[in-house]
Amino acid sequence: MRRRYETNLALVVLLVTASVAVAETRKEFRFPVSGKASVSITNVYGPISVKSAQGGQIFVIAILKSDKVEVDRSQSGDRIDLVSHLLPGADMQSGQVEYDVQVPIDTAVTLHTTTGSLTAEKLQGDLSVEGAAANVSLRDIANAHVHVKTLDGPITLANIVNGHVEVTSISGNVVMTAVNGKLVEVNSASGKIRYDGDFGYAGVYILSSHTGDIEATAPSYASFDVSARSEKGKVENDFTLEPKHTSFVVKAGSAFAGTMNKAASSVKLFSMSGKIHLKKR
Predict the structure, then answer these.
(1) Burial class (CB in 10 A: 0-12, 13-18, 19+), 201
(2) 56-95: per-residue pLDDT in tens?
(3) Is residue 179 within 8 Å of residue 195, measured between CB atoms?
(4) For residue 36, which of 51, 52, 168, 211 sits 20 to 30 Å off, Cα-Cα?
């Protein structure tokens, strides 16, 4: 009896595995483009990964996890739109689509997802990324506007050169490494913000979190004008700054301001109750 039970159980597992394998579908789409293209991908469930590639086309691999979802696609000139279309009965598991996308390096990219990761690398076109609980990772981006919005997903930005960067998150932590540009602005309600770079040249850097901690690390040769304050949290500074006039009262442990070297960039750090630490690398 036991052997028959185990045999039947194994058969059920094989049938379930086979049905899942049959339901999962791989689709490939190629969109020829002639100029500076734009691509928009809206995915309800599942990850999206975008990388640059040579050639005058946008190449998309979509892995559909079941027959409860399909991919709607359209092209108008050099503008491409892809949308994951949920069918009746779809849920978070059966409605998943995994996108792997290759685009010309200067393509403008817009990505939306509810869950799953959002990654983009080696691009030089404007980039807009939005997700609820999405894990966002952007790296090796140059000469572009970068906009990121999440609710509680973590955000990682690395090697963003000459960017216009705007990040908004409710509770997700934001980690930036070697990020510089004319504007780098991060706003979080409760997430932690960590910056490790040199504050570029002639840029404006604004890091603010209502209750989260802020840690900014820069080398001794960095050139910036800084003001930092926390209404209820502790404030620390490792640099020897030249004093400057401010609109608030400078107070040891809660607020400081000053200039470093030629004050090429402007740095503003603010938290309502989180800790702020300006660290010397």
Answers:
(1) middle
(2) 999 999 999 999 999 999 999 999 999 999 999 999 999 9
(3) yes
(4) 168
